[in-house]
Design a protein that fits this description.
Chain lengths: ~170, ~240
């Protein structure tokens, strides 16, 4: 790949994927600043590579997942070092909606907490699909077989809705 | 009646998502045409997927204004491993126990974090032998605490954050060995390429960071001397040189 065509492809990929990758990482982590840093780092790593991977969208997700995992490890380790942390982290920059701000905020908080109750894998599956990633991209990024993605999405969705309704209640 | 077994939920879901390979799609569609149970199942899976999507759509969708220029210039800059990730975490750690600065979510976080501090015990830790392969260390600094790195490193950085905590924390990106003594801690870092997040209590009287005997960072009272000014987050970053 010539330098010009790499730069063009990089630019196009950044325009197309950076916001979506951010929303994915934010969905998984609930942490806006960390998500911004991770997305930046993903594109920095890609730029230093000076060559497009076979599947750039899945490559970005794989790198983001690794950075998320490293960040999580460091948080856990530091918590242990200072033994000073609550396990109940209220992360997530929820935006209230105009009609009923309190209820909307509570609903968003329930979505966030329901996601946090899922396994990392389930959260990744749901949020990748929600960001419009194709089954093949999800399979590549999460090291699954493509044919298992549908089944796993059904199960992850069930677990998520169950957790959500336990938190928010179905009567409202 | 249908001519073949009912397709699995995962295949019906893949059909809904337009992700079933063509041959399989024809097969499943043919089956569903004559099987009311599968048609009902498809409808149920569809409404479940729609509910999931509607709930996830409540999450904030605003993405920060990421600038490609920033990324390109960072990609061309000398590498600082861990720098970016450490920045976000340092910000969170720096806010432990009620700092009022920081982004709203950090403030929210701080409310829920209860720092376990031991203000009654300001004595430096008892001398300990070097321990192998330890990941991090935390201790309450005495009136003067030196963090002494044995040697410069060819790569790796130090990130220092001041925080309203009692304990001084050294958190390396890879295991190194330490020797904690009454005057501080010696970091046996020969051959290491780790980076180090160091959280210094804001009320520590005198803290120095030395590499091979040379003072790189010093906090005396509220006065800080460092190789470079603090970043916007209040963090100091410099190489282990
Ligand atoms: Zn059937």
């Amino acid at each position: 790949m010539s330098p010009e065509s790499f730069d063009d492809a990089f630019h196009a990929l950044f325009v197309e994927r950076s916001a979506s990758l951010y929303r994915y990482v934010h969905g998984v982590s609930g942490d806006p600043a960390l998500s911004e840093d991770i997305v930046q780092e993903c594109f920095v790593k890609l730029h230093r590579r000076r060559a497009m991977p076979d599947d750039p969208r899945a490559w970005l997700v794989t790198v983001a997942n690794n950075l998320l995992r490293d960040a999580q490890r460091r948080v856990v380790r530091r918590r242990r070092l200072t033994s000073a942390w609550s396990t109940d982290l209220p992360l997530g920059g929820a935006a209230p909606q105009p009609d009923d701000p309190a209820l909307a905020a509570e609903r968003i908080e329930s979505v966030r907490r329901a996601l946090d109750k899922l396994s990392l894998r389930d959260r990744q599956l749901l949020l990748l699909r929600h960001q419009g990633y194709r089954y093949q991209e999800i399979a590549t990024a999460l090291e699954l077989t493509r044919s298992s993605v549908g089944t796993m999405l059904v199960r992850a969705g069930e677990a998520f809705r169950k957790a959500y309704h336990e938190l928010f209640g179905t009567s409202r | 009646m249908s001519s073949s077994a009912h397709p699995a939920d995962g295949d019906l879901r893949a059909l809904l998502d337009g992700e079933l390979p063509p041959a399989q799609r024809v097969e499943v569609e043919q089956h569903a045409r004559t099987c009311a149970a599968c048609r009902a199942r498809v409808a149920a899976l569809e409404s479940a997927a729609q509910e999931t999507a509607a709930l996830l759509a409540l999450l904030p969708t605003a993405a920060p204004d990421l600038r490609i220029e920033t990324i390109v210039s960072r990609a061309r800059a000398p590498r600082l491993r861990w720098g970016v990730i450490a920045a976000a975490l340092a910000l969170v750690v720096a806010s432990v126990a009620g700092a009022t600065v920081g982004r709203p979510y950090v403030r929210a976080l701080v409310v829920r974090i209860r720092a376990v501090v031991h203000p009654e015990s300001s004595a430096p830790p008892a001398p300990s032998p070097a321990r192998g392969g330890q990941v991090g260390v935390a201790f309450i600094p005495g009136p003067q605490a030196d963090i002494s790195f044995d040697a410069p490193q060819s790569s790796g950085a130090v990130y220092v954050s001041l925080a309203d905590t009692a304990k001084l924390v050294i958190d390396p990106s890879a295991a190194v060995t330490y020797r904690v003594h009454p005057g501080g801690v010696v970091v046996h870092n020969v051959g290491s390429s780790a980076s180090y997040d160091i959280v210094v209590p804001r009320n520590a009287l005198h803290v120095r960071i030395l590499v091979a005997g040379r003072v790189l960072f010093e906090k005396a009272g509220s006065r800080v001397t460092a190789p470079a000014p603090a970043e916007p987050t209040g963090r100091y970053a410099f190489d282990v040189r």
